[in-house]
Design brief:
It is a single chain. The chain is an alpha+beta fold. Among the domains are: 12-59 and 102-284, no CATH class; 475-526, no CATH class; 529-615, no CATH class. 45% of the residues lie in helices and 16% in strands. The chain has a 5-stranded antiparallel β-sheet. Strands 3-2-9 form a 3-stranded antiparallel β-sheet. Strand 6 and strand 7 (245-252) form a beta hairpin.
């Protein structure tokens, strides 16, 4: 840092330029988002059944449909699998899959998923930040964004745009509250002593907090600004591009004080994963559950409360009386065993005033609104766990359920896009932050002999070529799995009787279709000595060293394991020798016994001489015997 640079390594002119740029972007975004923030704040009260007068009945239509979809999506167990893209990376992906499962527990991903899906259903699109890597637990630190205070680029269609980057956001951010001690502990904030404003500085943040409290029945008139060590200060966390680099900026004191400036580790894309329910290629927002339900809840609540008023009015009757016959009005007050004096004939002395009745049209409208809401969200009465008011046949119920499942499966597939991106970026975080020769990851593994711990280095986590990510939804895949296993079981006995079928692989395939995990199968199937030998040989083949084959090898099992080793000349030669030996065995079943006798006569195969990685004395095989 020179005399002309500040604590962030920027000159005064650069700092001034950065502040002006960020302030301009913040104003642009805030102006654009005002109407959307206002809409969301109003809907929050609607969803929580607080948008009503005390004398009215609240209608939970939005809450029921929202939570039905939320429960279905959260209950959907999405399985994520890493697949190798280059030969030799099979060992790395075998480490990545249990590591991702373990890290999901450490990151509390199920809690994050609940919040992430909730945001998606309410706002139409929600975000998870992936900027920080926890050096203590050696795991990424995802953070769900509060969309009530998210400032976004008006021209953005998504966070990182399409495959070509078109429609990506240029800038965006959100205000956060921190104590000065929290800023010091974070280690990325400077100029902390110069901060002198409180939480009320950012009106958008204050409005969001007020509406959240109001939706829970709290008073919003008090201020959060307190004095002392626990005073909360507002920092605008802003993402933008400055001097050609993607940076994260912290601003305070009305966005006039720079308190953070970091160039992001990932310059290829924003470390933000977005999730959407019904995406729209023309806009950022898409469609949310409240977009489909809000008008229906309001209409239904009006009808119900209008009917309530009529019923209440009818339970408190109004009467007309003849003042000439009933001369004292207090005589009409009700009392038991009371005698009322009437001047003349009591007939017609008092008559009830005609009253309106609840129309039969009310039930028609309520049924229509319910049906319309169910069509809009696919959250049918059956999905909601309620018994249908009309009688339905088993076929009708099955048809309705299947149609609803199809609609839910569409949402699950779209949600799966974000899960795939999350897993991809989780791997990328290790690639960016896990240092070779320094960092180690300790992973808990549930194995055949109980729980044990495995230490992973960078080379066991980061592959030569980034792996593919496969995501499967339980909602989408369960019906397909049942159909596949039915078809497979119908052919199983026939296939098992064929002499050319690998029965072990057939049984493993059946177990996989039945829902057994790889860990389950490792516990069920006993270790195969042939595979253990082949895996051991792979350690030498990975280093391009010559490994002899043995006549007693189960060639097919060795070939399956050697396919996972690094593709090099020695591995290809070794695999070709297995293929030649396998063909020779099948052509002459007796040849294996002849070679075994030759082995016994020689004592052992000739050992290869490692002279500059050149095999001068090739081992005798079935073909050379």
């Amino acid at each position: 840092m020179t005399d002309e640079q500040n604590v962030f390594g920027l000159t005064k002119d650069e700092e001034r330029e950065l502040l002006v740029q960020c302030q301009n972007e913040i104003i642009t975004s805030e102006t654009f988002m005002q109407s959307k923030w206002k809409l969301w704040r109003r809907r929050l009260r609607l969803l929580n059944n607080q948008k009503k007068r005390e004398s009215d009945i609240s209608e939970p239509l939005a809450h029921v449909h929202f939570n039905t979809i939320h429960a279905a999506l959260y209950d959907d167990e999405i399985s994520t699998t890493f697949l190798p893209r280059a030969q030799g990376d099979e060992v790395v992906t075998e480490s990545l899959n249990p590591l991702y499962e373990y890290d999901s527990e450490v990151m509390d991903k199920r809690v994050m998923d609940y919040q992430w899906i909730w945001n998606t259903l309410f706002f139409g699109r929600s975000l998870v930040l992936m900027f920080e890597f926890d050096r203590k637990n050696m795991v990424p630190k995802p953070e769900v964004v509060n969309m009530l205070t998210w400032y976004r680029d008006p021209n953005a269609l998504s966070v990182n745009g399409d495959s070509s980057g078109r429609g990506a956001m240029r800038f965006g951010g959100y205000p956060i509250t921190m104590t000065k001690k929290e800023m010091e502990e974070a280690g990325v904030y400077k100029n902390i002593d110069e901060i002198h404003t409180g939480i009320s500085e950012n009106q958008i943040l204050q409005d969001a907090k007020d509406r959240i409290r109001e939706s829970q029945g709290f008073d919003t008139s008090f201020s959060d600004d307190i004095i002392g060590e626990n005073k909360l200060d507002v920092v605008m966390t802003w993402l933008t591009t400055f001097k050609g680099k993607k940076v994260v900026v912290g601003l305070s004191n009305g966005n006039t004080l720079l308190v953070r400036y970091n160039v992001l580790s990932d310059q290829e894309e924003w470390g933000i994963i977005d999730q959407t329910m019904y995406p729209n290629s023309l806009s950022w927002d898409g469609v949310s559950v409240l977009d489909l339900i809000e008008d229906k809840q309001r209409a239904k609540a009006k009808l119900i409360n209008a009917a309530l008023f009529t019923v209440e009015a009818n339970s408190n009757h109004m009467y007309a009386y003849d003042v000439n016959k009933v001369q004292n009005e207090s005589d009409l007050d009700f009392e038991q065993n009371k005698h009322v004096p009437i001047n003349g004939d009591p007939t017609g002395a008092i008559q009830p005033i005609g009253r309106s009745q609840v129309s039969s049209e009310l039930q028609y409208m309520l049924d229509y609104i319910d049906g319309s809401a169910q069509k809009a969200t696919a959250a049918t009465e059956i999905q909601q766990g309620a018994v249908s008011g009309s009688k339905r046949t088993a076929t009708e119920i099955a048809t309705v359920s299947e149609s609803a499942d199809t609609r839910f499966s569409l949402i699950s597939k779209v949600i799966g896009w974000s899960e795939k991106e999350f897993a991809r970026y989780w791997y990328k975080m290790y690639k960016m932050h896990f240092t070779e020769g320094i960092d180690e990851k300790i992973m808990r593994v549930v194995g055949q002999n109980g729980v044990f711990f495995r230490t992973l280095s960078r080379e066991e986590i980061v592959s030569k070529v980034d792996p593919d990510v496969s995501v499967k939804s339980r909602i989408v895949g369960e019906a397909r799995r049942i159909r596949e296993i039915q078809e497979f079981n119908s052919q199983f006995n026939l296939l098992a009787q064929s002499p050319n079928v690998n029965v072990e692989e057939l049984v493993r395939r059946r177990a996989k279709l039945s829902g057994y995990t790889e860990m389950d199968m490792q516990n069920i199937f006993k270790p195969d000595p042939e595979r253990i030998m082949a895996i051991s040989e792979n350690e030498k083949l990975d280093k391009n060293k010559f490994v002899p084959i043995n006549a007693s090898d189960d060639d097919l099992k060795h070939l399956q394991e050697h396919a996972k080793a690094t593709d090099n000349s020695k591995n290809r030669t070794h695999q070709q020798a297995h293929w030649d030996q396998y063909i020779a065995k099948n052509k002459n079943p007796n040849i294996q016994g002849e070679v075994a006798a030759l082995e016994q006569a020689q004592g052992q195969f000739d050992a290869p001489i490692d002279a500059g990685e050149q095999d001068l004395n090739p081992v005798k095989t079935i073909q050379t015997a």
